[in-house]
């Protein structure tokens, strides 16, 4: 009987010891915690010897402890992973292996589920007690008669039964612990045992529970907080559909904490956006109560009584569940606040729940964690959304005149050509340049020059129809697309514009009155050409002919003009073809500076060809190469000529990638073959493509970028912010570098909108772990400005001009 009781107690002690260790380990105990825990075991179990063994898995991470050596029985338990019981002449030995569970892997990173992390051994020596009992019993039997013998047996039975009852009480007490709150119940319980020894054990258990309550963390709470951390990882999908993300989070929260609603309030200017997220369908009464709570919070936090601009939305997680009316006394809520200066937004997040939860300290801690996570998610989403709105606007507009910018003009021109072809109509293009603007700008300063450009842009806009496309092409050059307008109609519009500009007078800072002068070139689709690049080049050529003829004029192309224009293009095509046949595409290298380190860490590779001793830049032949299909071979020759020069260098090299080359299915295979032939590290090669080109080749480009990344190359978007779909590309492609549109960089110092745009791109890029490159760094002031905005890299003539041998001048 003694052995059975001792064995039952040994099992209970081993189980209690493991449960205690498990609760403490989840908190992440230190070596001091371990020593204190082992000492408390020795003090609390005087009639038993308890030993804890670490296996090699634990020792490799946390070191050795003072433990007895393994004998064959300990090794057997570790090997088999099973509990072992040994009885020998009154000595009881119980061995219990400690198996790794899923939650253990958070700390024991070198283990897997089911691995044996250690062993708990409980020993008890009953030999002296049994021997003493036998001797006493034998003496008693000598003098005992049958009746006393029966009496003794009955007493023994009664005592044994009573002891078993007390052991079961202790067992039930320890088995009732499944969460952290249960420890508090044990601490507050008051059980009286008829045996002093059991009272002592019970007192020791309460002391151990008290220590554990101070340092332990509930398993469910710990797992939930880990889940919350995972939910805080912002992806582009979450930013795009953050409301659905909050609804899913609400359902996860309800698995551990009964929650009625989550709400968020965001303020931008004097407008308030309120979002409620309900676990089920709320009654109108519940809605009204929480809307009143939110209104009061808005008044308190934002110190405002103007609540007329509030937009309230209700989002339901499970529409098949109804939330019944609850009295105000049974509703509790908690809120947190956030105010951002850049961008200027304010955010309140809150959570509504039953007042019963207020009684649990653990659940209140969970609510605090939830609110912190919600504040981070909602605050980040709102900030990114505001930046995105600004970026998308300035990506399509010239910040000075608010006309369309150059990149968008090219997309709109291309769209208009396709529409004209589809509906069989003509349209015309005007290229307009201000005469003598440089003299005006230099004489009266940039501020007056900017005002001069704005006034001219307003005249252009008011001189055409609402559906006509007016854009600032760059500097003092403007373009206008006139849909469904032939050459004759375009000439009439051009004359009206010329007259309106010349009749406009502007007062200079010194009090003089001047009026603008412009030169206009005209071309018509498809009368002069059905190719949009040629259409623009022809109108641009006509504009320069108007200037050379005396300025302030309009020039329409004659048959001779058209013939000369296309003969020049044919001439360049022949020169380019010869250069490709001889593999004489010359690489020039423009340095790219790491702003933080101050070192040249990359180069952009630029194409050049030579004719009669003259170096011809890519701008003179790249469109012809694309139009004629020579771009494929030209790009590959350029790559090979570069690889010959850079095989012993470790910088990164940026190559401009033409989308026209991507239609050749073996393009990337040929690039990979060149990389292997010249032993080039693909991570040092960055392929960049201009944003406006990606629109036309999206499906091809998606496949190409995926294969590009799989081969180890890097990918960059050039002229970022110049097109309609900047952020779509960020979402769809694995981008390593963003090269910010040069127009924004050039005007950074003088234009707040340009600065805001660049700042927004940098903020977005850092959140997405994308490096930024500022182009067009022409002077120290612009360099210092991009440095202040925390741009990663700088490129431009101030950093260094392109050269064929890395000997740049900066």
Comma- or semicolon-separated keywords:
about 800 residues, five-stranded mixed β-sheet, Beta-Lactamase, alpha/beta, Alpha-Beta Plaits, eight-stranded mixed beta barrel
What does this 3D model show about the protein?
- The chain has about 800 residues and is an alpha/beta fold.
- The chain has four domains: about 1-215, Beta-Lactamase, CATH 3.30.450; about 220-395, 2-Layer Sandwich (Beta-Lactamase); about 405-555, Reverse transcriptase/Diguanylate cyclase domain (Alpha-Beta Plaits, 2-Layer Sandwich), CATH 3.30.70; about 575-795, Alpha-Beta Barrel (TIM Barrel).
- The chain contains 29 helices and 27 strands.
- The strands form six sheets. Strands 19-20-22-23-24-25-26-27 form an eight-stranded mixed beta barrel, surrounded by four helices.
- Strand 13 and strand 14 (about 475-480) form a beta hairpin.
- The longest helix has about 35 residues, at about 360-395.
- It is elongated and about 145 Å long.
CATH architecture of the largest domain: Alpha-Beta Barrel
Number of domains: 4
Strand order of the largest sheet: 19-20-22-23-24-25-26-27
With helices defined by DSSP (H or I, 4 residues minimum), what is the helix count?
Answer: 29
Structural class: alpha/beta
How many strand units?
27
Q: Briefly, what CATH class of the largest domain?
A: Alpha Beta
CATH homologous superfamily label of the largest domain: EAL domain
Q: What shape does the CA trace take?
A: elongated
């Amino acid at each position: 009987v003694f052995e059975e009781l001792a064995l039952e107690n040994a099992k209970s002690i081993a189980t209690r010891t493991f449960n205690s260790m498990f609760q403490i380990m989840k908190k992440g105990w230190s070596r001091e915690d371990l020593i204190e825990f082992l000492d408390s075991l020795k003090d609390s179990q005087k009639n038993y010897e308890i030993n804890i063994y670490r296996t090699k898995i634990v020792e490799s991470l946390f070191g050795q402890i003072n433990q007895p050596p393994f004998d064959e029985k300990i090794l057997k338990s570790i090997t088999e992973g099973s509990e072992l019981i040994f009885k020998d002449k009154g000595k009881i030995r119980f061995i219990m292996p400690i198996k790794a569970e899923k939650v253990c892997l958070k700390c024991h990173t070198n283990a897997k589920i089911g691995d044996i992390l250690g062993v708990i051994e409980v020993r008890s020596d009953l030999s002296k007690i049994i021997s003493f009992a036998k001797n006493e019993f034998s003496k008693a039997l000598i003098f005992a008669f049958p009746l006393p013998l029966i009496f003794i047996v009955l007493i023994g039975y009664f005592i044994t039964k009573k002891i078993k009852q007390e052991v079961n009480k202790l067992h039930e007490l320890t088995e009732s612990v499944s969460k952290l709150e249960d420890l508090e119940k044990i601490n507050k319980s008051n059980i009286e045992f008829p045996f002093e020894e059991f009272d002592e054990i019970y007192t020791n258990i309460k002391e151990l529970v008290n220590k554990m309550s101070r340092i332990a963390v509930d398993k469910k709470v710990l797992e939930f907080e880990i889940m919350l951390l995972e939910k805080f990882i912002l992806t582009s999908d979450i930013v795009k559909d953050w409301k659905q993300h909050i609804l899913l989070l609400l359902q996860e929260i309800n698995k551990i904490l009964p929650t009625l609603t989550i709400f968020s309030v965001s303020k931008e200017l004097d407008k308030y956006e309120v979002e409620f997220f309900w676990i089920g369908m709320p009654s109108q009464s519940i809605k009204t109560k929480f809307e009143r709570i939110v209104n009061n919070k808005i008044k308190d936090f934002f110190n405002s009584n103007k609540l007329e601009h509030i937009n309230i939305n209700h989002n339901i997680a499970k529409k098949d569940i109804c939330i019944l009316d609850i009295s105000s006394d049974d509703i509790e809520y908690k809120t947190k606040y956030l105010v951002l200066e850049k961008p200027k937004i304010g955010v309140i997040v809150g959570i509504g729940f039953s007042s019963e939860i207020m009684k649990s300290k653990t659940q209140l801690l969970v609510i605090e964690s939830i609110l912190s996570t919600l504040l981070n998610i909602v605050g980040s989403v709102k900030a990114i959304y505001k930046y995105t709105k600004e970026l998308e606007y300035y990506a399509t507009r010239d910040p000075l005149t608010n006309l369309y910018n150059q990149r968008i003009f090219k997309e709109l021109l291309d769209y208009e050509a396709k529409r004209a072809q589809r509906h069989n109509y003509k349209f015309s293009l005007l290229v307009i340049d201000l005469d003598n603007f440089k003299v005006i700008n230099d004489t009266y300063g940039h501020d007056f020059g900017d005002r001069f450009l704005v006034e001219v842009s307003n005249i252009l806009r008011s001189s055409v129809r609402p559906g006509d496309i007016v854009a600032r092409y760059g500097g003092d050059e403007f373009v206008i697309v006139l849909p469904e307008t032939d050459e004759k109609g375009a000439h009439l519009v051009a004359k009206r514009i010329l007259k309106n500009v010349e009749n406009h007078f502007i007062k200079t800072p010194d009090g003089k009155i001047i009026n603008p002068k412009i030169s206009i070139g005209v071309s018509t689709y498809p009368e002069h050409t059905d190719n949009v690049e040629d259409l623009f080049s022809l109108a641009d050529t006509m504009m320069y002919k108007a200037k050379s003829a005396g300025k302030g004029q309009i020039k329409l192309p004659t048959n001779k003009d058209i013939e000369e224009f296309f003969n020049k293009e044919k001439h360049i095509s022949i020169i380019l073809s010869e250069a490709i046949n001889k593999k004489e595409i010359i690489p020039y290298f423009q340095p790219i500076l790491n702003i933080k380190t101050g070192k040249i860490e990359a180069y952009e590779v630029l194409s050049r060809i030579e004719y009669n001793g003259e170096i011809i830049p890519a701008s003179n032949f790249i469109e012809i190469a694309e139009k004629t299909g020579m771009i494929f071979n030209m790009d590959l020759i350029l790559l090979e000529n570069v690889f010959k020069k850079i095989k012993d260098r470790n910088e990164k090299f940026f190559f401009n990638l033409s989308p026209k080359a991507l239609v050749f299915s073996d393009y990337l295979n040929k690039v990979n073959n060149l990389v292997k032939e010249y032993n080039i590290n693909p991570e040092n090669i960055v392929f960049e493509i201009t944003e406006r080109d990606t629109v036309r080749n999206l499906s091809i480009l998606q496949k190409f970028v995926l294969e590009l990344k799989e081969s180890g190359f890097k990918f960059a978007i050039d002229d970022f912010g110049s097109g309609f779909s900047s952020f779509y590309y960020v979402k769809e492609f694995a981008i390593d570098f963003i090269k910010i549109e040069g127009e924004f960089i050039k005007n950074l110092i003088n234009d707040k909108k340009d600065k805001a745009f660049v700042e927004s791109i940098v903020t977005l890029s850092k959140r997405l772990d994308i490096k930024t490159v500022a182009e067009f760094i022409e002077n120290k002031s612009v360099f210092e400005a991009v440095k202040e905005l925390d741009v990663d890299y700088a490129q431009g003539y101030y950093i260094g001009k392109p050269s064929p041998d890395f000997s740049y001048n900066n």
